[in-house]
Amino acid sequence: MADDHGSPCFEHCVFAIIPSRDIPPYRITELAQTLEDHAGEVQEMGRKGIADINRLTHFISTTSDFREYSASRELMIAVVTPSWITASLLKNKQASIRPYSPDPMLFFSQVNLSCADIPTGDKDAIVGAVLAMGGMESSSLTKITTHICALTMDNPKCQQAKEKNLKCKIVLPHWFDDCLRLGKRIDEGPYELPNPEIFRLNPEDAVPIPTTAHMQGATTPHPETFPISTDLPAPRHLDVFKDKSIMLSDDLGISSRLRKIIEDLVRDGGGLITNSVHNADMYICHWRAGRDYVFASRAGIDVGNLSWLYHLIAHNEWTSPLRRLLHYPLPENGLPGFKDFRITLSNYGGEARIYLENLVVAAGGEFTKSMKQDNTHLITARQTSEKCAAALEWNIEMVNHLWLEESYAKCKLQKLTDPRYLHFPPRTNLGEIIGQTQLDPAIIESLYFPEDPTPSPSDTKPLRRPIMREKDRNMPIQQQSGESVEMCDQEDMDMRDTEEQRLTVRPNSASRPRSSSKTTVATPLPNRRISAGKENNTPSSTGSRSAKDRALSKLHNLAPDIALYEKERKRKGHVWGGERAANKMEKDKSLERSSSPEDSNGQRDSSDEDVPKSKRTKIGAGLPPVEIRLLITGYKGWLSNPAKEDVDKKKLRKLGILVVQDPTTCTHLAAPKMVRTQKFLCALATGPVIVSSEFIDTCIRDGELPDTDDFLLHDEDSEKKFKLKLPDAISRAKANKRSLLRCVPVYCTAEIPNGPETYKAIVESNGGIFSVYRARGGSTIRPTKPDEDDGPPEPVYLLTGTRPEERKLWDKFTEMAKAGNMIPRIVTHEWLLDVAMSQQLKWNDRYLARAE
């Protein structure tokens, strides 16, 4: 890779190379020699890890799935792929780190983009997205260019790439748009010029079901048989358990014969089997319950299920149990909200289908192979199948698998209205990105093993490792890369005798766990604890009790100093002390003298409702309560500049302004003028305060929250155009309380311009009943007789365009409406837009698509 005694490109750099399948031992030797030839220093990876991780500046790895990854983020150690070394040597200086990160969140990290005949605005947006997600961009075509974004092959860049036979892909901008909507990188094949599949074939045409390696060995939480790896020689020496102690929990429900086989494999590989969780390095269990699970999780011991253990045996390589959803113990009673769900699948096959079936059951839902009208959800990889058509007819929720995966990963039911869960690229089977979602360790900790609120001062036994808490994965990428990971040392693992222990249930792969009527409750004893090292701690004599009382008294006197030490030990950066510490202590004492506990403000930021209690004080420290929930539409100040948007949103939050995306939760709406966009009309239904976009600029510029009355939106031209007064519309919206279209059925053709989803959001925001009409099956309006109704017939609306395929539905819709004793009104989309903008349910024959 380089000549001996090359340039000192890596001077003052200390590297550690993580071994994996992609970096075998011989490759490690080559990389280490190259780094040392260019003034770099390489530390060897031992079985116990890095000897001195604090000296490292770089990890070389093809994956973020290694033990030291969390520590690297905490210590701000760069993690790069081996390609970074090559790029640095080509430049004769250290290359940028971000494009070579193995972080799966940076899904454009291997993309080097050059744009061709793309309009300036679209080009800026695409380039900004690629850079934000770890890619690179160059204006000229180079040998390292991987993608050319173009609309046609006529551009000189495309011709040059074709003539020189460069190994770069020429793709439509649609590919970048679909990747960003999903938050995942999909295959470029359907978007490649000169003959892109998304234009050449219909969305309804068949698409092969893809295969993916992300679910390998993780399709079920409780495998019935040992997995056999075909890509590794057998027999082989198993060393993944070398110098490790493994504890197998009783809740695994495995036979004594299988347990003995596992124990023999561990011992033959240099590991130990233990019956005490206090001595374990790995704890294998099925449920996220029980004292041993809580202790192991708090102690930083690797906790996984039987599927994870089999994966380690099959591949002889350590992987985090949090990387794959079904490698971690299951929630004993499922997830909140999934109990009443009946879920079925479509367009998934092979291991992907098995994986999703087991994930539905693990989340607490009921899986059905066939779909009936009592199904609640359809999870599909494409929006084309008989089940999809039936779901639209029966108003069954239809989403992609990301909704299920992220609900399970975040231990909370995710909103079905999130655009990521409703997006289906036309010629892509989303099975190709299945299994990439990882569990969030901070959420798991807050729900299943929160910090012990009453630590015992008598237990001074230190833990093996700190528990690493990663930042929220929903946080923007710019924040993730710049912020470190919080480290929390759990110094006391005592558990009260009075803590109720749930009865261990043996796993059953065919059914969900049922709660047992038997519960073991320990008898409470006054002022007594169970320490991490002992189950009983009986005082030996009165003299020993007196000595312990004196020791406890000293500890109480030292409590303030201990608390200050703990605070500073967790501080990021250099050690804090000296005059700065003294001034801080004096300031705290003066505040303590001048204020009482009753003076504290008990309010908390409403935007932190979903943040675990143990982290609210850290995340929301110093932030004022939310006074304005601001929805922004049409604002151009952040166009193609996500970094500025992130900074400005933080400034607004410090002023008490929270920028929201859900129109139903906003209190204020900012827009340059009155516009009939989906976001504007959905927000208008809530009756918000509508301000001009200048309000945002003023807040950011002045750093103060001005009076919103000074920035109320005034748009006389639009008011004349729409024939209404904006203040009157807002007043009516407040009176309507999002019920303008209550009990009003609104149908829509599937081929209507802008798509049915646009109008669905507007109708439902105003309380209406929305359905896509395809004239399939029976009537969705209950037939009635005229004499059965107390009042005159009610109207029913069909939103439609004027395409021939839409006109074919008009007669059938009219027949269906009249059979249900309702007045059919086949209208253009102008009717809905005018109604939503004026907040009045008005009617005029000019809205008709044709005369009745």
From TrEMBL:
Q: Where is the composition biased (Polar residues)?
A: 534-545
Q: Output the InterPro entries linked to this UniProt entry.
A: BRCT_dom, BRCT_dom_sf, CellCycle_DNARepair_Reg
Q: Which residues form the signal peptide?
A: none
Basic and acidic residues composition bias: which ranges? 493-503, 581-613
Q: CDD domains from the xrefs?
A: BRCT_BRC1_like_rpt2, BRCT_BRC1_like_rpt3, BRCT_BRC1_like_rpt4, BRCT_BRC1_like_rpt5, BRCT_BRC1_like_rpt6
Looking up SMART domains in the UniProt record yields: BRCT
Q: Which PROSITE patterns match?
A: BRCT
Residues annotated as region Disordered?
Answer: 448-551, 575-619
What spans are recorded as compositionally biased (Low complexity)? 506-517
> Which part of the chain is the BRCT domain?
5-102, 122-193, 236-326, 338-421, 628-713
Give an example GO cellular component term for this record: Cul8-RING ubiquitin ligase complex
Report any one BP term from Gene Ontology: double-strand break repair
What PANTHER family does its record include?
Answer: REGULATOR OF TY1 TRANSPOSITION PROTEIN 107
Know the name of this protein?
BRCT domain-containing protein
The uppermost taxa in this organism's lineage are: Eukaryota, Fungi, Dikarya, Ascomycota, Pezizomycotina
